[in-house]
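User: My instructor asked us to take a sequence, write out its structure as C-alpha cells, and then describe one feature of it. I'm not sure where to start. Here is the sequence I was given:
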Amino acid sequence: QVQLVESGGGQVQAGGSLRLSCAASGRTFTFSSKNMGWFRQAPGKEREFVAAISRSGGSTFYADSVKGRFTISRDNAKNTVYLQMNSLKPEDTAVYYCAADSGLRVVISPEQYDYWGQGTQVTVSS
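Assistant: Let's start with the prediction itself. The C-alpha cells for your sequence are:
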C-alpha cells in the first residue's frame, strides 16, 4: 500500500514562509522512479497545479502564480519531496497535496497523477 504523508502546514502571516514535506512509503513504491507534484485546493475552487519535479530532481516546473516564491525539491534517499514557500500571500491559502506520477514525463494535470496524500492546510493571514 502506497502512502504519501504531508506535513509542515500551518498558519502564517503574509510575507512569511513555510516548508511542506511529503514522505512516501510502500513496499512496492519506488520513490526515485516517480515524478512528484504539489497541488492545492482552496474552498470552492478546483484543485490546481503548484509545482512538479522529475525523478532525478533535475527538472522543475511551477505555476505562474508561485514562480519565484516557491521551490520544489526532493531527497530520494529519504523518499521525501519538499515545497519551500516564501513571500506567502493570502491567496496561497489552501489545502496542499502531494502526488506521485509513474509516467515518463512530468505532467501538471492532477488527473494524470496516480497517488495522493491526504493534504495539509496552509492559511495565510493578511
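For the description part of your assignment, you could build on this observation: The chain has a mean pLDDT of 97. Try explaining in your own words what that tells you about the chain.
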